[in-house]
Amino acid sequence: MSSARGAARRAAPGTGLAVHLLLLGSIWSPVEAQLTGVLDDCLCDIESIDDFNTYKIFPKIQKLQERDYFRYYKVNLKRPCPFWADDGHCSIRDCHVEPCPESKVPIGIKAGSSNKYSKRANNTKELEDCEQANKLGAINSTLSNQSKEAFIDWARYDDSQDHFCELDDERSPDAQYVDLLLNPERYTGYKGPSAWRVWNSIYEENCFKPRSVYRPLNPLAPSRGEDDGESFYTWLEGLCLEKRVFYKLISGLHVSINLHLCANYLLEETWGKPRWGHNVKEFIHRFDPIETKGEGPRRLKNLYFLYLIELRALSKVAPYFERSFVDLYTGNVQEDAESKTLLLDIFRDTKSFPMHFDEKSMFAGDKKGAKSLKEEFRLHFKNISRIMDCVGCDKCRLWGKLQTQGLGTALKILFSEKEIQNLPENSPSKGFQLTRQEIVALINAFGRLSTSIKELQNFKLLLQHTR
Hints:
Layout: H1 2-10, H2 16-34, H3 46-65, H4 68-71, E1 72-76, H5 107-113, H6 116-120, H7 124-136, H8 145-160, E2 175-179, H9 193-206, H10 228-237, H11 241-263, E3 265-270, E4 273-277, H12 280-287, H13 295-322, H14 333-352, H15 367-387, H16 394-414, H17 417-421, H18 436-464
Antiparallel strand pairs: 1-2, 3-4
């Protein structure tokens, strides 16, 4: 393989791409050979996830993300980095995020988190609708006085509840709505010391590892030798389940983001017209076993593990959304009903998956030790959500915050099983609840994972076709 690569480098400029593509088919073979079978720490095989995602989940989750309720996300991209001096923002054009004009945000969404619209409404009925929606959040306002009082209790409970993420204050003047469909996650050119510092802080300061291990966790860190991959996974297997899970979640998120960038890469720009597409060379650089000293396929397996975790969370939270008082409220009755129908359909699919991750195996030791470990787990992840405010590229920060919050919401769901089971059928509860921002982040984060696995299959086909 190395001699073939050398020949490719020495090839004439006109034949470079052709030679490179000829090599790609053979490069996929070792990746494919290692990316198969049962995942560690669960009883699920990769092939079953591929089929389930391709034929059941991916088409539906794509449609759901296009719905108004899920396409508008309120985020504060101006929060200062809490850990180090600002490295400076990315000035590349593709790093920019275009906020959504207030007039474009559906009335029900807007009224649920702000008073601004109701003050400016001209139509009396619109004013009344906005005021009612504002009192109840982004939830259908046709509720009894008893239910409204319960929502007040909900708010008090939520304010005191422990979260896995540092949540943005939606009332901040710096918080703006972003249309996720108009600001897709893709390669922006953001890289270098600033990006490295973010991931290095995530891996080295927040992931668990024995103090005796000096090998860097950050895959972007310079390699120290040929045995790095073997020694790394040797000590990882020596950690307890919870700490292994934590690392795999972070690695899976990193892999997913990298796959999005490889699949939506700026290939060329002619007369100001960009052409985005799959960059197979970049994919090889990040995941080829030889290029990554055997770690590429292991990283890709962490993507599947993360997918299982969030899939499990969706199956667990289904009873919450099946309650009659939980609506995906935008103000458009027909759209809202169709969105909830599609969401419940996806939940039915998630519950039908036969090989879910068993979260009950986590934090199952003695009560005191388990509680302490769970709190440490939560605080480490919450810290990572705060690091997202240190990302210098606005578009990268947007999607980093959203996907981190989505995973944090999934963890919140997994460890709130009793609260979800105890929800009453026809009235709000003082217990478990999700804000609209958490719901939007949860669905879009899982949608990103579903897309990543689908793109992995696309890269597989691209490489196979070059053989």
